[in-house]
Amino acid sequence: MNALCLAIGTFTILPARMPTRVDRATARGAMLLAPLMGILLGAIAALVLWAVCSVTDAAYGNLLGAVLAVALLAYLTRALHLDGLADTADALGSGRRGDGALEIARRGDVGPFGVVTLVLVLLIQATALAVASDAGWGALTVIVAVVTGRLAAVVACTRGIPAASPEGLGALVAGTVPRTAALAWVAGVLVLAAAAGAWLTGVAWAPALAVIAGLSLALGLVARSAGRLGGINGDVLGAAIEVATSTVLVVLAVVA
């Protein structure tokens, strides 16, 4: 129960009681529940997307629905992952390493790299989701994208990837997830994405390809960030979530 409360509190704005114990064992359980939080968030966003598109002219309804779905996801996650993306972009864009890069990431303000990254990522997400919706793939696309984003966080917390600092979210969750558990989640999401694609669109390979692409780019970012910062922190996890989510949206928009 502590792990579930921590997962809800970490990945969503939904009400949940405070965990009675927060340690690395609890953090491991919370990270392993992250894809389930993705299913919940993706389903809510898909419902909003469907509702708006069904009552609005198709020429503008898909775009409006996509923008509202992306905005809702930001609200339901307190925009924490977007904030992490901006902070990571500033840290990497600074050219600094180690403590210097971490200091930039910890600042409360957002620098030019962060601003540009946020604007581009939100535009990409909304546009890609609108394109996928035009093809009738909107609900599938947003659910697969959001789940893959949370799956990227699970894989980023596998053993062997250190924390960037001895305190904070990164120190709590880094290295807590067994590799076998992460691989099991990856295999499960791939199978479910392919099955959903075959059922809803008649195309099984596209969602699976999108999941693989999303995880690949997100883990590339994690590796780059870990090399520059000395490990991962909450900002890097947020950035990985947004990169994986955006990649899935773009891939499914292109193939739809």
Description:
This protein has 256 residues and is an all-alpha fold. The protein has one domain (34-255). It is built from 12 helices and no strands. Helix 7 runs parallel beside helix 12 (234-255) and helix 10 runs antiparallel to helix 11.
Secondary structure elements and pairings:
Blueprint: H1 2-11, H2 24-32, H3 34-55, H4 58-76, H5 80-93, H6 99-106, H7 112-134, H8 138-156, H9 169-173, H10 179-200, H11 205-229, H12 234-255
Helix pairs in contact: 1-2, 3-4, 3-8, 4-7, 5-6, 5-7, 5-12, 7-8, 7-12, 8-10, 8-11, 8-12, 10-11, 11-12
Structural class: mainly alpha
Mean pLDDT: 91
Task: Determine the fraction of residues in helical runs and give it as a percent range.
Answer: over 70%
The rounded Rg comes to 17 Å
Total tally of structural domains: 1
Number of separate strands: 0
Specify the overall morphology: globular
Briefly summarize what is shown.
By secondary structure, this protein is mostly helical. Helices cover 77% and strands 0% of the residues.
